[in-house]
């Protein structure tokens, strides 16, 4: 099946250049730029961005992800302040902080997330902060740090259905992700979000089952987007879905009780994060 080709608004070159300059000056990384996200200019114009902390090397090797695998460098103690400075200079109103998996660290990087939130709060108390976290191997002390660090929203991505998860995310675990999300939902006062990719080989009924699993553990916000193969070495796209499919999944999600569902071909986990 040929992919549906949505129309993407042409990026504002002045805005992109200004953003790149500030990011380079502060030595920080955004997922928006690293993944060449087609929505990045739109998000920048709305005053939002997604920052990736704890380096550019992941200890896991998911078959959908283009981030390199290996052992990362020790956490940089200057990174929290550099991220906070970049957010202030960019004039952002809503930020998503995410990271690679750091299974090599004793707390899996949870204390670094906490330090970044603290640095942002010191400079800009009114900026809204969403944390999109790894599973921290479901370590309760790490999860508790995240719950108590002062973020406005917590998220962890299930990514795919139960059947495909062992192949797509061999070092992660479907049930463990549900446990993390359940911990967030039962210990955190704000909203809890997760995201799914489609086109990896799932059946529509399996997608609905996964959505029901997420709802059952307390997830109240959901995003669904089309998987796009980042390189020939990654998992192939098995199916491209038309816009009507994503609209159907949005309606089904709302019927299940999610308070917000963003579903579309180009939707990514942080797309319109401030509106959910």
Order of helices and strands: HEHHEEEHEHEHEHHEHEHE
Task: Please compute the radius of gyration using only Cα atoms.
Answer: 18 Å
Query: For this structure, what is the CATH class?
Result: Alpha Beta
What is the straight-line distance between the termini? 31 Å
- The CATH architecture designation is Alpha-Beta Barrel
Question: Please, what is the average pLDDT?
Answer: 90
Number of domains: 1
Q: Beta-strand percentage?
A: 15-25%
The CATH homologous superfamily corresponds to: Aldolase class I
Largest sheet: 8 strands, mixed
Number of H/I helices:
10
Describe the structure.
- This protein has 276 residues and is an alpha/beta fold.
- The protein has a single domain (13-275), classed as Alpha-Beta Barrel (TIM Barrel).
- Helices cover 38% and strands 16% of the residues.
- It has 10 helices and 10 strands.
- It has helices at 13-26, 31-34, 40-45, 79-90, 110-123, 140-148, 165-168, 174-187, 204-216, 243-256; strands at 29-30, 48-53, 57-58, 68-69, 94-99, 128-132, 153-155, 191-198, 221-226, 260-264.
- The strands form 2 sheets. Strands 1-2-5-6-7-8-9-10 form an 8-stranded mixed sheet. A two-stranded parallel ribbon has the order 3-4.
- Strand 6 (128-132), helix 6 and strand 7 (153-155) form a beta-alpha-beta unit.
- Helix 1 (13-26) runs antiparallel to helix 4 and helix 4 packs across helix 5 (110-123).
- The longest helix has 14 residues, at 13-26.
- The two termini are 31 Å apart.
